């Protein structure tokens, strides 16, 4: 087992222990006791990036725990729970989608993952996949720590990628898309086609409880409504689609407008004839026609 595999496996258990009442120190103690690892280092999103494990021979019992955990994952983590979407941009409506993925993955003892589309154009998909992933992690840090976020061309490409590791799939989608994805994903199960090949013992589609937040005309603040607000220069309406805790709203707004090729316009200069007396004096001052005495 190489270092990346070990870190990925430890991250799975680490995320499953995430709870508001459980501190990081308590989680570290549990990891040490159960798997024999110490000096856990986290990134700013709370994911494990490295750890020290006991050397074989000196602490063989603890090392065996890591090997046992690998087998545990192979046996238990045969189900992948995921979703796929454009999230261009991510909105408060997507938070419930992420929460449903996490909730379902715990119920299934499975792997939780969100795939974002890499499609990009100036109209409906202004943000790149990397920018979307960055904003998702900033907008929903708690949820982002409990699942993996990756990019993919299409939902079928995502299934091909997961095929080597998992026997069962559970896809979480908006309530209006359950039938569509159930038909599509099962249609190509076991079929070698242009997108590649995947074969699962079972494919389930579950509803996130609401309409797809990426859909046109979706209720609430959908991604399409946020794009429209950004295009029209209406930041107040745009801000309604973001959590109150998100601090990079202006940056997201500007990134979308820039990607949509919308140039920021300066307010038109008011001719002197239309200025009131205060405005006239102010303008004269800035043109150095009035001096401090």
Please tell me about this protein's structure:
The protein has a five-stranded parallel sheet with strand order 5-4-3-6-7. Strands 1-2 form a two-stranded antiparallel ribbon. The chain starts with a helix and ends in a 7-residue tail after the last helix. It has helices at 3-16, 24-35, 60-76, 92-108, 129-139, 141-144, 155-162, 178-187, 223-231, 235-239, 249-259, 277-286, and strands spanning 37-42, 48-53, 79-85, 111-117, 148-152, 168-173, 202-207. Helix 8 links the parallel strand 6 and strand 7. The protein is α/β, with parallel strands linked by helices. The radius of gyration is 25 Å and the shape is globular. The protein has two domains: 3-75, no CATH class; 78-259, HUPs (Rossmann fold). The longest helix has 17 residues, at 60-76. The chain is built from twelve helices and seven strands.
Defining key terms:
two-stranded antiparallel sheet; Rossmann fold; 7 strands; 293 residues; single chain; 5-stranded parallel beta sheet; alpha/beta; Cytidyltransferase-like domain-containing protein; Rossmann-like_a/b/a_fold
The span between the termini is: 79 Å
Which strands sit side by side, in order, in the main sheet? 5-4-3-6-7
| Quaternary assembly | single chain
Shape descriptor reads globular
């Amino acid at each position: 087992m190489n270092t990346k595999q070990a870190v990925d496996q430890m991250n799975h258990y680490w995320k499953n222990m995430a709870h508001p009442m459980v501190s990081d120190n308590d989680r570290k103690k549990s990891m040490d006791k159960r798997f024999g690892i110490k000096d856990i280092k986290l990134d700013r999103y709370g994911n494990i990036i490295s750890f020290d494990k006991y050397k074989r021979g000196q602490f063989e019992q603890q090392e065996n725990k890591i090997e046992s955990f690998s087998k545990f994952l192979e046996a238990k983590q045969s189900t992948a729970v995921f979703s796929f979407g454009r999230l261009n941009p991510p909105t408060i409506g997507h938070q419930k989608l992420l929460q449903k993925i996490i909730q379902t993955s715990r119920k299934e003892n499975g792997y939780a993952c969100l795939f974002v589309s890499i499609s990009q154009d100036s109209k409906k998909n202004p943000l790149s996949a990397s920018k979307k992933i960055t904003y998702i992690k900033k907008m929903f840090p708690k949820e982002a720590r409990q699942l993996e976020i990756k990019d993919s061309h299409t939902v079928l490409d995502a299934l091909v990628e997961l095929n080597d590791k998992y026997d069962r799939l559970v896809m979480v989608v908006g309530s209006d898309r359950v039938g569509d994805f159930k038909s599509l994903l099962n249609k190509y199960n076991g079929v070698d086609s242009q997108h590649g090949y995947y074969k699962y013992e079972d494919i389930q589609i579950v509803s996130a409880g609401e309409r797809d937040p990426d859909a046109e005309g979706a209720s609430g603040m959908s991604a399409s409504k946020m794009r429209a607000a950004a295009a029209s220069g209406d930041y107040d309406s745009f801000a309604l689609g973001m959590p109150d805790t998100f601090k990079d709203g202006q940056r997201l707004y500007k990134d979308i407008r820039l990607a949509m090729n919308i140039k920021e316009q300066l307010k038109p200069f008011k001719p002197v004839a239309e200025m009131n007396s205060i405005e006239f004096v102010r303008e004269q001052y800035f043109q150095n026609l009035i001096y401090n005495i």
